[in-house]
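Handout, page 2. Input:
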Amino acid sequence: MITLSRVRPLFEFGLGLCVFVFLPLLALFPRAAAGLEAVAGVLALGVASPAGLAAWRRVTRPALLLAVLVVWGLASTLWAIQPARALLIDARLLGLFAAGLALVAAVPEIATPARLLAWFCAGLALALALTIAQYRTLGALTGPFSKQMFVEPRLNQVEAGLVTLIAPLAASLALRRRVWAAALVAAATLAVVLLLVGDTAQVGLAVGMAVALPAYFWRRLTARVAAAVSVAIILTAPLIFPALIGIDALARWARATKFSMWHRLEIWSFVGAHIAQRPLLGWGLDSSRAIPGGSKLTPEGVPWLPLHPHNGPLQAWLELGAPGAALFALLVARLWLLLAAAPWTRLYVAACAASLVGAFTVTLASYGLWQEWWIGSEFLVLFLVLTMGRLACPAHPMP
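Output:
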Protein backbone atom coordinates (compact mmCIF):
# COMPACT_ATOMS: atom_id res chain seq x y z
CA MET A 1 0.00 0.00 0.00
CA ILE A 2 1.35 3.41 -1.02
CA THR A 3 1.41 5.93 1.82
CA LEU A 4 1.92 9.69 1.79
CA SER A 5 5.28 9.22 3.48
CA ARG A 6 6.54 7.12 0.58
CA VAL A 7 5.43 9.52 -2.13
CA ARG A 8 6.48 12.63 -0.23
CA PRO A 9 9.78 12.85 -2.18
CA LEU A 10 7.71 13.19 -5.35
CA PHE A 11 5.73 16.05 -3.83
CA GLU A 12 8.98 17.71 -2.77
CA PHE A 13 10.39 17.25 -6.27
CA GLY A 14 7.27 18.95 -7.63
CA LEU A 15 7.81 21.84 -5.24
CA GLY A 16 11.34 22.13 -6.58
CA LEU A 17 9.96 22.49 -10.10
CA CYS A 18 7.52 25.16 -8.89
CA VAL A 19 10.37 27.07 -7.26
CA PHE A 20 12.39 26.77 -10.47
CA VAL A 21 9.69 28.21 -12.76
CA PHE A 22 8.44 30.90 -10.35
CA LEU A 23 10.57 33.86 -11.43
CA PRO A 24 10.74 32.88 -15.14
CA LEU A 25 6.95 32.76 -15.09
CA LEU A 26 6.81 36.28 -13.64
CA ALA A 27 9.06 37.43 -16.47
CA LEU A 28 6.85 35.93 -19.18
CA PHE A 29 3.31 35.32 -17.93
CA PRO A 30 2.96 36.86 -14.44
CA ARG A 31 -0.78 36.23 -14.16
CA ALA A 32 -0.02 32.50 -14.12
CA ALA A 33 1.62 32.93 -10.69
CA ALA A 34 -1.74 32.34 -9.01
CA GLY A 35 -2.09 28.98 -10.73
CA LEU A 36 1.48 28.10 -9.83
CA GLU A 37 0.77 28.89 -6.16
CA ALA A 38 -2.30 26.64 -6.29
CA VAL A 39 -0.26 23.75 -7.70
CA ALA A 40 2.51 24.36 -5.17
CA GLY A 41 -0.09 24.43 -2.38
CA VAL A 42 -1.40 20.99 -3.36
CA LEU A 43 2.14 19.61 -3.47
CA ALA A 44 2.89 21.24 -0.11
CA LEU A 45 -0.20 19.54 1.30
CA GLY A 46 1.32 16.22 0.33
CA VAL A 47 4.61 17.15 2.00
CA ALA A 48 3.00 18.39 5.24
CA SER A 49 0.23 15.80 5.68
CA PRO A 50 2.40 12.96 7.06
CA ALA A 51 3.28 15.22 10.01
CA GLY A 52 -0.38 15.25 11.02
CA LEU A 53 -1.90 17.99 13.15
CA ALA A 54 1.52 19.28 14.20
CA ALA A 55 2.03 20.74 10.73
CA TRP A 56 -1.20 22.73 10.91
CA ARG A 57 -0.73 24.00 14.45
CA ARG A 58 2.17 26.08 13.13
CA VAL A 59 -0.16 28.15 10.98
CA THR A 60 -3.11 28.44 13.37
CA ARG A 61 -2.76 32.14 14.13
CA PRO A 62 -2.22 33.40 10.58
CA ALA A 63 -5.02 31.08 9.47
CA LEU A 64 -7.38 32.71 11.97
CA LEU A 65 -6.47 36.21 10.78
CA LEU A 66 -6.94 35.25 7.14
CA ALA A 67 -10.19 33.47 7.96
CA VAL A 68 -11.55 36.61 9.63
CA LEU A 69 -10.54 38.60 6.54
CA VAL A 70 -12.39 36.14 4.29
CA VAL A 71 -15.46 36.23 6.53
CA TRP A 72 -15.47 40.03 6.57
CA GLY A 73 -15.09 40.06 2.80
CA LEU A 74 -18.04 37.69 2.57
CA ALA A 75 -20.11 39.92 4.84
CA SER A 76 -19.27 42.91 2.64
CA THR A 77 -21.08 41.27 -0.27
CA LEU A 78 -24.28 42.38 1.47
CA TRP A 79 -23.53 46.03 0.66
CA ALA A 80 -21.02 45.67 -2.20
CA ILE A 81 -21.68 47.53 -5.45
CA GLN A 82 -21.21 44.26 -7.36
CA PRO A 83 -22.18 41.45 -4.95
CA ALA A 84 -21.51 38.63 -7.41
CA ARG A 85 -18.03 39.98 -8.14
CA ALA A 86 -17.32 40.37 -4.42
CA LEU A 87 -18.41 36.78 -3.77
CA LEU A 88 -16.16 35.50 -6.57
CA ILE A 89 -13.13 37.39 -5.26
CA ASP A 90 -13.82 36.16 -1.72
CA ALA A 91 -13.87 32.55 -2.95
CA ARG A 92 -10.60 33.12 -4.80
CA LEU A 93 -9.03 34.59 -1.68
CA LEU A 94 -10.08 31.52 0.30
CA GLY A 95 -8.32 29.26 -2.20
CA LEU A 96 -5.19 31.41 -2.39
CA PHE A 97 -4.93 31.67 1.39
CA ALA A 98 -5.43 27.91 1.83
CA ALA A 99 -2.67 27.14 -0.68
CA GLY A 100 -0.38 29.69 0.95
CA LEU A 101 -0.93 28.27 4.43
CA ALA A 102 -0.18 24.77 3.10
CA LEU A 103 3.14 26.09 1.77
CA VAL A 104 4.04 27.60 5.13
CA ALA A 105 3.03 24.41 6.98
CA ALA A 106 5.23 22.32 4.69
CA VAL A 107 8.45 24.26 5.30
CA PRO A 108 9.65 22.29 8.38
CA GLU A 109 8.87 19.01 6.59
CA ILE A 110 11.11 19.71 3.59
CA ALA A 111 13.74 16.98 3.66
CA THR A 112 16.27 18.72 1.40
CA PRO A 113 15.99 22.51 1.67
CA ALA A 114 19.42 22.87 0.04
CA ARG A 115 18.07 21.19 -3.08
CA LEU A 116 15.19 23.67 -3.22
CA LEU A 117 17.74 26.47 -2.92
CA ALA A 118 19.60 25.03 -5.92
CA TRP A 119 16.34 24.84 -7.90
CA PHE A 120 15.62 28.45 -7.07
CA CYS A 121 19.10 29.66 -8.05
CA ALA A 122 18.75 27.92 -11.42
CA GLY A 123 15.34 29.54 -11.91
CA LEU A 124 16.74 32.94 -10.98
CA ALA A 125 19.49 32.66 -13.59
CA LEU A 126 16.92 31.75 -16.24
CA ALA A 127 14.60 34.57 -15.13
CA LEU A 128 17.36 37.17 -15.39
CA ALA A 129 18.15 36.02 -18.93
CA LEU A 130 14.48 36.01 -19.95
CA THR A 131 13.90 39.45 -18.41
CA ILE A 132 16.81 40.98 -20.32
CA ALA A 133 15.63 39.30 -23.52
CA GLN A 134 12.10 40.62 -23.05
CA TYR A 135 13.39 44.11 -22.33
CA ARG A 136 15.81 44.25 -25.27
CA THR A 137 13.42 42.71 -27.81
CA LEU A 138 10.29 44.56 -26.64
CA GLY A 139 8.52 41.39 -25.62
CA ALA A 140 9.43 39.16 -28.55
CA LEU A 141 9.28 36.03 -26.38
CA THR A 142 5.62 36.52 -25.51
CA GLY A 143 4.49 38.60 -28.49
CA PRO A 144 2.99 35.65 -30.42
CA PHE A 145 0.89 34.70 -27.37
CA SER A 146 -0.38 38.17 -26.41
CA LYS A 147 -2.91 40.44 -28.06
CA GLN A 148 -1.61 43.48 -26.19
CA MET A 149 1.38 45.53 -27.27
CA PHE A 150 4.41 45.05 -25.03
CA VAL A 151 5.38 47.97 -22.80
CA GLU A 152 8.27 48.12 -20.34
CA PRO A 153 6.05 48.18 -17.20
CA ARG A 154 5.01 44.60 -18.12
CA LEU A 155 8.26 43.57 -16.44
CA ASN A 156 7.36 45.28 -13.16
CA GLN A 157 6.02 41.99 -11.80
CA VAL A 158 9.28 40.09 -12.14
CA GLU A 159 11.11 43.17 -10.84
CA ALA A 160 9.01 43.06 -7.67
CA GLY A 161 9.83 39.36 -7.28
CA LEU A 162 13.54 40.03 -7.66
CA VAL A 163 13.46 42.87 -5.15
CA THR A 164 11.77 40.76 -2.47
CA LEU A 165 14.13 37.79 -2.90
CA ILE A 166 17.56 39.22 -3.72
CA ALA A 167 18.63 39.92 -0.12
CA PRO A 168 17.46 36.62 1.49
CA LEU A 169 19.02 34.60 -1.32
CA ALA A 170 22.36 36.42 -1.15
CA ALA A 171 22.41 36.08 2.65
CA SER A 172 21.55 32.39 2.47
CA LEU A 173 24.38 31.72 0.02
CA ALA A 174 26.84 33.74 2.10
CA LEU A 175 25.90 31.81 5.24
CA ARG A 176 26.62 28.60 3.36
CA ARG A 177 30.14 29.90 2.69
CA ARG A 178 29.41 30.65 -0.95
CA VAL A 179 30.37 34.31 -0.69
CA TRP A 180 31.41 34.69 -4.33
CA ALA A 181 28.14 33.13 -5.49
CA ALA A 182 26.23 35.49 -3.20
CA ALA A 183 28.09 38.51 -4.59
CA LEU A 184 27.50 37.39 -8.18
CA VAL A 185 23.78 36.78 -7.58
CA ALA A 186 23.35 40.13 -5.85
CA ALA A 187 25.25 42.06 -8.53
CA ALA A 188 23.45 40.41 -11.46
CA THR A 189 20.03 40.82 -9.90
CA LEU A 190 20.69 44.42 -8.91
CA ALA A 191 21.85 45.24 -12.44
CA VAL A 192 18.63 43.85 -13.93
CA VAL A 193 16.45 45.64 -11.36
CA LEU A 194 18.12 48.96 -12.18
CA LEU A 195 17.73 48.28 -15.91
CA LEU A 196 13.95 48.05 -15.59
CA VAL A 197 11.48 50.91 -15.18
CA GLY A 198 9.61 49.99 -12.00
CA ASP A 199 10.28 52.96 -9.72
CA THR A 200 8.32 51.56 -6.78
CA ALA A 201 10.32 48.33 -6.67
CA GLN A 202 13.59 50.26 -6.90
CA VAL A 203 12.53 52.56 -4.07
CA GLY A 204 11.53 49.49 -2.06
CA LEU A 205 14.96 47.97 -2.62
CA ALA A 206 16.72 51.16 -1.51
CA VAL A 207 14.58 51.60 1.61
CA GLY A 208 14.92 47.90 2.40
CA MET A 209 18.71 48.09 2.28
CA ALA A 210 18.59 51.09 4.62
CA VAL A 211 16.41 49.19 7.13
CA ALA A 212 18.64 46.10 6.89
CA LEU A 213 21.52 47.86 8.69
CA PRO A 214 19.73 48.61 11.98
CA ALA A 215 17.98 45.23 11.72
CA TYR A 216 21.39 43.56 11.71
CA PHE A 217 22.43 45.18 15.01
CA TRP A 218 19.08 45.67 16.77
CA ARG A 219 16.65 43.15 15.32
CA ARG A 220 13.93 43.35 17.99
CA LEU A 221 13.91 47.12 18.25
CA THR A 222 13.97 47.55 14.47
CA ALA A 223 11.20 45.01 13.96
CA ARG A 224 8.99 46.63 16.60
CA VAL A 225 9.56 50.11 15.19
CA ALA A 226 8.88 48.83 11.68
CA ALA A 227 5.70 47.12 12.87
CA ALA A 228 4.51 50.31 14.55
CA VAL A 229 5.33 52.43 11.50
CA SER A 230 3.59 49.99 9.17
CA VAL A 231 0.47 49.92 11.34
CA ALA A 232 0.47 53.72 11.53
CA ILE A 233 0.75 54.04 7.74
CA ILE A 234 -2.11 51.60 7.16
CA LEU A 235 -4.45 53.07 9.76
CA THR A 236 -3.81 56.69 8.77
CA ALA A 237 -3.65 56.04 5.02
CA PRO A 238 -6.90 57.97 4.30
CA LEU A 239 -5.34 61.04 5.92
CA ILE A 240 -1.85 60.72 4.43
CA PHE A 241 -2.04 59.65 0.79
CA PRO A 242 -5.03 61.70 -0.46
CA ALA A 243 -3.45 64.83 1.01
CA LEU A 244 -0.20 64.44 -0.94
CA ILE A 245 -1.68 66.07 -4.02
CA GLY A 246 -2.12 69.26 -1.98
CA ILE A 247 1.63 69.60 -1.42
CA ASP A 248 2.59 71.98 -4.24
CA ALA A 249 6.25 71.01 -4.44
CA LEU A 250 5.39 67.31 -4.60
CA ALA A 251 2.66 67.86 -7.17
CA ARG A 252 4.99 69.89 -9.41
CA TRP A 253 7.71 67.26 -9.11
CA ALA A 254 5.28 64.44 -9.95
CA ARG A 255 3.95 66.29 -13.00
CA ALA A 256 7.46 67.01 -14.28
CA THR A 257 8.98 63.62 -13.52
CA LYS A 258 6.54 60.92 -14.63
CA PHE A 259 2.85 61.00 -15.53
CA SER A 260 2.13 57.78 -13.63
CA MET A 261 3.34 59.46 -10.42
CA TRP A 262 0.98 62.40 -10.93
CA HIS A 263 -1.87 60.03 -11.76
CA ARG A 264 -1.25 58.14 -8.52
CA LEU A 265 -1.79 61.38 -6.62
CA GLU A 266 -5.05 61.98 -8.51
CA ILE A 267 -6.23 58.44 -7.79
CA TRP A 268 -5.44 58.70 -4.10
CA SER A 269 -7.24 62.03 -3.83
CA PHE A 270 -10.35 60.54 -5.45
CA VAL A 271 -10.20 57.43 -3.26
CA GLY A 272 -9.78 59.47 -0.09
CA ALA A 273 -13.00 61.36 -0.81
CA HIS A 274 -14.92 58.09 -1.22
CA ILE A 275 -13.41 56.49 1.87
CA ALA A 276 -14.76 59.45 3.83
CA GLN A 277 -18.26 58.58 2.62
CA ARG A 278 -18.15 55.03 4.06
CA PRO A 279 -15.28 54.84 6.57
CA LEU A 280 -16.75 52.08 8.75
CA LEU A 281 -17.97 49.38 6.35
CA GLY A 282 -16.43 50.42 3.05
CA TRP A 283 -17.98 49.89 -0.37
CA GLY A 284 -17.61 46.10 -0.44
CA LEU A 285 -14.89 43.68 -1.51
CA ASP A 286 -13.35 44.53 -4.90
CA SER A 287 -15.78 47.41 -5.41
CA SER A 288 -12.96 49.74 -6.50
CA ARG A 289 -13.65 48.98 -10.16
CA ALA A 290 -17.27 50.18 -9.78
CA ILE A 291 -16.96 53.19 -7.44
CA PRO A 292 -19.29 55.99 -8.62
CA GLY A 293 -17.33 58.44 -10.75
CA GLY A 294 -14.29 56.19 -11.02
CA SER A 295 -14.66 55.75 -14.76
CA LYS A 296 -14.92 59.50 -15.39
CA LEU A 297 -11.83 61.10 -16.86
CA THR A 298 -9.33 63.39 -15.22
CA PRO A 299 -8.24 66.59 -17.04
CA GLU A 300 -5.48 64.48 -18.59
CA GLY A 301 -8.03 62.08 -20.08
CA VAL A 302 -7.51 59.00 -17.88
CA PRO A 303 -9.96 57.41 -15.38
CA TRP A 304 -10.00 58.74 -11.84
CA LEU A 305 -9.91 55.17 -10.53
CA PRO A 306 -8.59 52.53 -12.98
CA LEU A 307 -9.64 49.19 -11.41
CA HIS A 308 -7.95 49.70 -8.02
CA PRO A 309 -6.29 52.48 -5.98
CA HIS A 310 -2.70 51.29 -6.56
CA ASN A 311 -2.28 51.45 -2.80
CA GLY A 312 -2.99 48.49 -0.51
CA PRO A 313 -3.98 50.38 2.64
CA LEU A 314 -6.28 52.71 0.70
CA GLN A 315 -7.92 49.75 -1.03
CA ALA A 316 -8.49 48.01 2.29
CA TRP A 317 -10.14 51.17 3.65
CA LEU A 318 -12.15 51.84 0.50
CA GLU A 319 -13.59 48.35 0.17
CA LEU A 320 -13.59 46.87 3.68
CA GLY A 321 -13.63 49.96 5.87
CA ALA A 322 -11.95 50.28 9.24
CA PRO A 323 -12.21 46.53 10.08
CA GLY A 324 -10.49 45.58 6.84
CA ALA A 325 -7.71 48.11 7.40
CA ALA A 326 -7.25 46.84 10.97
CA LEU A 327 -6.92 43.23 9.74
CA PHE A 328 -4.39 44.30 7.12
CA ALA A 329 -2.41 46.15 9.81
CA LEU A 330 -2.47 43.08 12.08
CA LEU A 331 -1.15 40.84 9.32
CA VAL A 332 1.76 43.17 8.52
CA ALA A 333 2.59 43.72 12.20
CA ARG A 334 2.59 39.97 12.82
CA LEU A 335 5.15 39.44 10.06
CA TRP A 336 7.48 41.97 11.68
CA LEU A 337 7.07 40.51 15.15
CA LEU A 338 7.68 36.98 13.86
CA LEU A 339 10.86 38.24 12.21
CA ALA A 340 12.02 39.65 15.55
CA ALA A 341 11.64 36.21 17.17
CA ALA A 342 12.96 34.09 14.30
CA PRO A 343 15.88 31.74 15.19
CA TRP A 344 18.04 33.06 12.36
CA THR A 345 21.45 34.67 12.18
CA ARG A 346 21.78 38.45 12.19
CA LEU A 347 22.63 38.52 8.51
CA TYR A 348 19.54 36.58 7.48
CA VAL A 349 17.24 38.62 9.72
CA ALA A 350 18.59 41.81 8.15
CA ALA A 351 18.05 40.38 4.67
CA CYS A 352 14.47 39.41 5.50
CA ALA A 353 13.82 42.89 6.88
CA ALA A 354 14.93 44.31 3.53
CA SER A 355 12.62 41.87 1.75
CA LEU A 356 9.62 42.76 3.93
CA VAL A 357 10.20 46.49 3.45
CA GLY A 358 10.45 45.96 -0.30
CA ALA A 359 7.16 44.06 -0.43
CA PHE A 360 5.37 46.63 1.72
CA THR A 361 6.69 49.50 -0.40
CA VAL A 362 5.40 47.86 -3.58
CA THR A 363 2.03 47.40 -1.88
CA LEU A 364 1.87 51.14 -1.18
CA ALA A 365 2.05 52.25 -4.79
CA SER A 366 1.53 49.47 -7.29
CA TYR A 367 -0.79 46.49 -7.46
CA GLY A 368 -4.33 45.71 -6.43
CA LEU A 369 -4.57 44.19 -2.97
CA TRP A 370 -6.62 41.23 -4.22
CA GLN A 371 -4.82 40.53 -7.50
CA GLU A 372 -4.41 36.76 -7.62
CA TRP A 373 -0.94 36.79 -9.14
CA TRP A 374 0.31 39.20 -6.47
CA ILE A 375 -1.08 37.19 -3.54
CA GLY A 376 0.19 33.95 -5.05
CA SER A 377 3.63 35.47 -5.62
CA GLU A 378 3.89 36.75 -2.07
CA PHE A 379 3.04 33.34 -0.62
CA LEU A 380 5.66 31.72 -2.87
CA VAL A 381 8.17 34.36 -1.74
CA LEU A 382 7.29 33.61 1.89
CA PHE A 383 7.75 29.88 1.27
CA LEU A 384 11.18 30.50 -0.26
CA VAL A 385 12.26 32.85 2.51
CA LEU A 386 11.21 30.40 5.23
CA THR A 387 12.86 27.48 3.44
CA MET A 388 16.12 29.38 3.05
CA GLY A 389 15.70 30.39 6.68
CA ARG A 390 16.07 26.75 7.68
CA LEU A 391 19.55 26.86 6.22
CA ALA A 392 20.22 30.15 8.03
CA CYS A 393 19.20 28.77 11.41
CA PRO A 394 22.24 27.93 13.56
CA ALA A 395 20.48 24.80 14.86
CA HIS A 396 20.08 23.43 11.33
CA PRO A 397 23.13 21.50 10.07
CA MET A 398 24.44 22.41 6.66
CA PRO A 399 24.20 19.34 4.41
